[in-house]
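Hi there,

I know you've been waiting on this one. I reran it after we fixed the sequence typo, so this is the corrected version. Both the input and the resulting structure follow.
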Amino acid sequence: MLRLGKKKTTRAQGPPPQVDPQKLVDAQSVKRAVLAAIAATLILSSFWMFFANVTGWVFPWFSIVQGIFIGLAVRRFGRGLDWRFPLIAGMSAWIGAFFGNLLVAVPVTTGALGASWWEVIRGLTWWSIRTFFDEVITVVDYIYAFCAAAVAVFYAKRRLNRHEVFALRTRQQS
């Protein structure tokens, strides 16, 4: 009968691409990963505060969204291959979850005290932060922070294709 030609073949088309494993290792940057994590944390916490202020609702699940973007930012700018980059992303997401909750509480505090947001932030002390963690942060916030850190760890490590993995393994073995 009539048959159409195959679009995919089982044979490789030419030699595999040459990958320089040293370039992969040199592309890593802990400094850029940390800066990207800090920037993503600040930007997303600001969005979280803005949406909570506009709608009047607190979105605790936003910390998980924040964790996703922190992990992606660390992957994109850190280009990491080892354990340091997921650790940076996870710790940033954990801290960012509580920082976002603190920023969400600032407009509520300004309304209750009749002060500006700058006066509230300037008036923060260790006692007020400890009181915030004792009275405002609940078990659910810790669960969301853990989930945000887990998601950030998942997304932080650089994804390699099979040729890059093979080049790194042969470099390690030699």
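Quick highlight: The chain has a mean pLDDT of 90.

Best,
R. S.
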